[in-house]
Amino acid sequence: MHIHRRWSGGSRKRLHRLFLLLGLAAGALAPAGLSGQQGTVRGVVRSESGVPLVSAQVLVVGTTRGVVTDGSGRFSLSDVPAGPAVLEAQLIGYETTRRELTVGSEVAVVDFVLRHAPLALDGLVVTGQGSAIERRRISTHVDVISSAEIEASPATRLDELLQSRLPSAQIRMTSGQAGTTSLIRTRGLNSVSSNSTPVIYVDGVRVDNLNTAATLSLSISGGRHQGAATSALADLPLDNIERIEHIPGGAATTLYGSDAANGVIQIFTRKGSMGPTRYSAETTIGFDTPTSEFHFFDRTKELLYRTGLTQSYRLGADGGTDRFTWNVSANARASESHRKEGENSSIGFRSGFSAQAGDRGRYDASLSFSQNEMPRFRNGNSGGYNSLWFVEGGRSFAFGFDNDIDALDDGEWNRLLDFVNRAEALQDYSVQVRRFMSSHAVSFDAPGNLTFRSTVGLDYRVSTEQAVTTNEFLIHTQSAPAGTSDRGSIQNYDRKFLGLTFDASAQHRLERGAWSVVSTVGGQVFRNEDEQVAYAAENVRDGSRTLVGAGTTTSSDYTSRVANYGAFAQTNLGLLGRYFLDLGVRVDRNSSFGESVGSQVYPKVGLVYDVTAEPALRRMLPESLVTQFRLRGNYGVAGNFPRPFANDRTVSFSSLGGDQAATFGQPGNDDLAPERTSTVEVGADLGLLSDRVTLGVSWYRALTRDALMNAPSPPSAGEGSQLRNVGEIENRGFEVQTTVVPVSRPGLRVAMNASFNTLKNEVLSTGGTPVFNLGGLSSRTIQAVVEEGFPVGYLRGPSATFNADGTLDEVDYLSYLGKPHPDYFGSFGTTVDIGGSLTLNATGDWQVGAQAHSFDRHFRFNYGLPGDDVPEAAVEEAGGPSRIWLDVFNLFVEDTDFVKLRTVGATYRLPESWAPGRFRDLRIGLQVVNPWSWAASTFDPETDLSGAIGQGAASVGGFNYSTDTHPRSFLFTFGMGF
């Protein structure tokens, strides 16, 4: 009830006003009525087990008439010409179905039952080709996440949603704090200078995908790259998404240019559907409880954590005519942090519409706004008081407590509890993000099977991070003596990102007998502007949240503007509907390239052979036995940008004696070019027993040439290091994904899916560049480094060996200790549909073959807590733990194999007879997030704070360092339509 009282004031009033405005907007957009009707067709689209299908397309064959099903699978088509007609229903992941009927003056009712077809090749996809094209024609695998999967997920951010749903990708949430960064790997690590996050588009507009700390940003850890940085993925709106498409880097991403080596994610939002205005409402309430299985001390949970209430509300409306459809939605969410202090909150609005312009043109638009507010908590070895290091790292001894907190008597425990409660309440670190996105697309179907399309849009994101450190906090945590009044401080970090996208293309389709040709040409311009300001104050009075009146103030700024210009051409040739050849090329120019580089050319070629389309083979192997069998292969090149200004020669200025002093800056590199990742991929897609068993297998080899590395200049030049194209990195592996449907009959369907991936990563060459650090601490301790002949970011540090009696034998201070990325990883899931009303689902993922270092366990040893990590004889010989702890890093590196259930849930659709009045589609759901996990390590292997050293730089992981693990959430949802 506590959070209800907090929401009953201003926040709830703002929420009511938001929903009131939404209702007024929906009423204004609602059509007054449909005129000139010749006939109306209504119905419901369901799966073979009876589940209503959302966002299925229902078309009148031979016309432009079409509609999309609503949240209960219903559709209504008006103004259908009287007489015989053929209706077609289609949805990605299902077999296209047609029904014949006669349209008259009475309303015709036609229902569809679509059969699941995971390898359905007639479905249209966009990603990888730039324009819509049938899946059977493309030479690589495209993962598609449907609207039903998105709505069933309890995820509140994009990377959480994609976790365990992209079979060829691995996504790890590196901190339990809301809105923080993740590690995303698709086909390994192909760069040591740039982050591995894919390029992301929303309705054709490229958006901010910064998934590392910004250049000027809040640091609440020992090193900025070890902290819980805020991610731009966390505030991408998830409402009203029709589908998500993902494609790995390499051949399929050539059309996206010099920053697509890590793959592409495309998000497509709904634009409404024809029919009367429909409303929907949904509320979710539940609680987040800490996961304590990875805590060393039993009392850590009671000391730092709580069970926090969470609630969210969503209201939406859509409708339209045959000329104009629209969709609007609003949402609000608030949750108590699973830490003892702090609340997370967010509000959002999204709208989309589609308008017919004449007989051949169409205008599609979308816009969204969101605001998120989140607290932050100190982590890592940040000095002074840090909650988890204080407790789990054994640092509490420095504050006058026995650091074996499970052994404290009641008096000492209560003293520790009071100290921590006050320290937690006095922490004041926060993040606020506001984001506005808009997309506008115009398409025109010209005579002669020629389609023109143009998209323009923007992504504008403003974030503010603030750290307020009061004198009271410093005194309480013993960082300042009693009576201190002049050491309070305020730090502010503002970042404004503006991304502009312009895309234009033309597609031509030609059918000539056995031949079919789909050709596309186009161009793209995108421009990113990143402006950052840091302003701080010292000697701030307690109670102030502004810099006015502070004793001293300082400021700094950072600005970058990057523009990319690209043009592409491709053609897809088909013969007899079973042989396909895909050819394409892209040319790019970018402001980050050196002056002598010029344009970059990225080619691709692909081959597809649909074996089951061979008449002779089809006669031998009936469709009921081998439904589909397709062979594919491709080769292509994609790239990674150099960081902004990396090609420029600079002079550094600093203050000296009240004047400016100039020194050598960056040497500059006129030959600086993007990294080029060439990918060879071969694979097969197989469907057996009417697609009751499907299998997709791919083998790939991705070779990054011209890898960007910070290479030293010749000693005679008297200059520092410079980013140069000198390296070579290889990734190779297998990708296997399968779906098995052991039961499929009316009223019951059981489907199980799984994926298995292998990964071999190696730095083939560094071009003579010395070993350098990507994360970790100093070279005397442990680091994630880059060295020729080893995996990217392998762990290097002191490794001790011992004699038979336990005494120290020798120490190798530059030893290989493990690697942060796994040899094998995958995902799994199960869905059970019962009677068209009850749906049960579960998702999870796993990994094997990676390692990470536990700083918490290492510090517990150093601070004298009981344990058998190091032989007792070696400790006694050295004179105590603090004399030997820097020599034994190998003893605190652990395997990070794990199996995790991500979600387990159930959704029940209530009978329609239970819905009063105009209400329909009543449903209730229960979801459990992070219900169970097993790990080989003593710490949570997913919470990994080894981030990028610089903005957008490589992030590899490998270190667990006083990091919050993710809470376990129990959520109840009630939704309805009316």
Key descriptive features of the protein:
10% helix, five-stranded mixed sheet, Maltoporin, Chain A, mainly beta, 2 domains, Immunoglobulin-like, disordered N terminus, 978 residues, globular, 22-stranded antiparallel β-barrel
Task: Give the number of DSSP strands.
Answer: 49
Put simply, the count of helices is 12
β-strand amount: over 45%
Q: Average pLDDT across residues?
A: 88
Structural class: mainly beta
CATH second-level architecture of the largest domain: Beta Barrel
The domain tally reads 2
Proportion in helices: under 10%
Question: What fold name stands as the CATH topology of the largest domain?
Answer: Maltoporin, Chain A
The largest β sheet comes out as: 22 strands, antiparallel, barrel
Top-tier CATH class of the largest domain: Mainly Beta
- Determine the CATH superfamily of the largest domain: TonB-dependent receptor, beta-barrel domain
Using only C-alpha atoms, the radius of gyration works out to 29 Å
Which geometry do the CA atoms define? globular
Structure description:
By secondary structure, the protein is mostly beta strands. It folds into 2 domains: 37-114, Immunoglobulin-like; 124-759 and 821-850 and 896-977, Maltoporin, Chain A (Beta Barrel). It has 12 helices and 49 strands. The strands form 9 sheets. The protein has a 22-stranded antiparallel beta barrel. Strands 11-16-17-14-15 form a 5-stranded mixed sheet. Strands 1, 4, 7 and 8 form a 4-stranded mixed sheet that branches. The longest helix is centred in the first third of the chain and has 20 residues, at 10-29. It is globular. It starts with a helix and ends with a strand. Mean pLDDT is 88; it is low at 1-36.
